[in-house]
Amino acid sequence: MNSLNKVQLIGNLTADPEIKETPNGQKVANFSIATNRVWKDASWMKQEQVEFHNIVIWGSLAGIAEQYLTKGKKVYLEGRLQTRSWDDPTGAKRYKTEVVADNLIMLSGWKGEWGDSFVQEAPEDVSPIKTKKATPKIEEEINIEDIPF
After folding, report:
1. Beta-carbon neighbour count of residue 71 at 10 Å?
2. Where are any strands of DSSP class E within 22-66?
3. Which of 52, 82, 88, 90 has CA atoms 20 to 30 A from the CA of 115?
């Protein structure tokens, strides 16, 4: 039986994406989104829990993130969980779990052609901008040493 590693998130960016390039010129975007869960406890008091998710996007989707995503924007992401490890300067093993996204839908406004000063919110009756799924490059293997962060 096969296994499944699938993540779907809707949340808001906590900061502008950080964009880097690998030595071979492939773009990678890193950012975090916040998701929240709201419920009423036994005494009917409103409770809220916020989770923060580290997101990594490669290739053409990283270019879209660079061009259109900014802090506070709401996005829908699909991808998979991936945990990477490294040794810190003291020799201790460190781990980081990230969502490697391969699909992105922008659910709120985007940067206009005049930069951040012109931001347009999508009307409720219009479907959100949907981007195409990233097509991974099969001919090259990405080594953890190539990641510039």
Report:
1. 13
2. 27-40, 46-58
3. 52
Q: What are phi and psi of 55, to 5 degrees?
A: -120, 140
Q: What is the rounded distance in angstroms from the CA atom of residue 21 to the CA atom of residue 7?
A: 25
Do the bridges between strand 46-58 and strand 93-106 make them parallel or antiparallel, or are there none, so unpaired?
A: parallel
Tokens read off for 78: 């699909």
State both tokens at 28: 């990678």
Residue 94, pLDDT above cutoff 70 = yes
Residue 75 CB neighbour total at 10 angstroms: 22
Supply the DSSP string of 93-144, one letter for each residue.
Answer: EEEEEEEEEEEEEE-S-EEETTEEEEEEPPPTTSPPEEPPPP---SSSPPPG
State the pTM of this model. Answer: 0.70
Residue with structure tokens 């097509």?
135
Which H or E run includes 77?
strand 74-87
Looking at residue 145, what is its pLDDT? 59
Q: Which residues pair with 110 in a beta bridge?
A: 120
The identity of residue 149, as a single letter, is: F
More confident residue, 119 or 52: 52
- Beta-carbon contacts of 85 under 8 Å, excluding residues fewer than 6 positions away, are 93, 94, 95, 96
